[in-house]
Amino acid sequence: MITIYHNPRCSKSRGACELITHAYNTANEAVEVIEYLKTPPTVDQLKALHAMLGCPLREMIRTGETEYKELGLDAVDVADDQLYESISRHPILLQRPIVVRNGRAVIARPPENVAALFG
Questions:
Q1: Overall domain count for the chain
Q2: Which of 10, 33, 57, 117 is catalytic?
Q3: Over the stretch 24-83, which tens digit does the pLDDT of each residue have?
Q4: Residue 40: strand, helix, or coil
Q5: Residue 93's closest CA among 53, 36, 48, 49?
Q6: 55 part of the active site
Q7: Looking at residue 9, which CATH number applies to its domain?
Q8: Angle at Cα 7 formed by Cα 49 and Cα 32, nearest 5°?
Q9: Do the Cβ atoms of 99 and 16 come closer than 8 Å?
Q10: Residue ranges making up the domain that contains 99
Q11: Cα(first)–Cα(last) distance of the chain, in Å?
């Protein structure tokens, strides 16, 4: 199963979907597309994504969004739990797209990053 946390208005997200559909998914694995702005991930789902990404938590966050500063998330002392909760409540903060396959995940910016899941 391949899961894509997708924003259809984002060109990078559309590009990742296109690459998966037409280039990398040669085994025709099931693909689940989650429009995370309509169906925000829970805190537990975000923690699982973070673990699969293996990157600093703030790399999962779109720091240029207005909500990032309005919520005070730019402060260095913000606890991880507050970051997870903020992303869940304000899913626009989630970096996109995130692609998950076989217990691993990548932020597909650029879309070609999905290749790491198929190598």
A1: 1
A2: 10
A3: 888 889 999 999 999 999 999 999 999 999 999 999 999 999 999 999 999 999 999 999
A4: coil
A5: 36
A6: no
A7: 3.40.30.10
A8: 60
A9: yes
A10: 2-117
A11: 16
